[in-house]
What we know:
Layout: H1 9-25, E1 28-31, E2 42-46, H2 53-61, E3 68-72, H3 73-76, H4 79-87, E4 90-93, H5 100-111, E5 115-118, H6 136-144, E6 148-154, E7 165-169, H7 181-197
Parallel strand pairs: 1-7, 2-5, 2-6, 3-4, 3-5
Antiparallel strand pairs: 6-7
Helix pairs in contact: 1-2, 5-6, 6-7
Amino acid sequence: MNPADANFPLRILSEDLVRGLLTAIWGIKATGLENVPLTGPLIIAANHASLVDAPLVAAVIAPRRRPFAMGKRELFENPILGWWLRRAGAFPIDRRGDAISALRRALDVLEKGGCLAIYPEGTRVKPGQRRAPKAGVAFLSARTGAPVVPVRVLGTAEFPRRSPLEVRIGAPLAPPRSEDRRTGLAYAKMLMENIYSL
């Protein structure tokens, strides 16, 4: 396991609980786990349809990496949930205000060789809909040289009615060659097309 990842006791316990519960009741179908590099800075980029996505992706990826993750600031305002999220390797991002501190934290994770999970669309998006992705994923990848692994999650929008839940992991994408905004937006768009094609 990569020592720069979120290898916290509460995180490991949470992964085991999530994996056990979801597997036992709904079932999990996961493909492409071999596409996740074991070492070096890495960004896991996934679509986002439900609150179940983040714990599901973390539980599926965990045999190879334990990504840190950004979450909307509002989740951290609940004292109990905020406490748990921070101790499981998540940190807040203010989607309507200053996101600089979250970007600095994300850069720090990647520069130390860790893994970061990110949802480029920035919010939950219902199946069949599309939302313009943010360029942040491209900036982080270009700045740190971290490859981006596309991940598609299926079935969580219908959770708990759909079974099994599915996670499809694609081959790593090379970082963009530039940090400029136009390149970043084009890269983010290409990334989301890659995700939805899985």
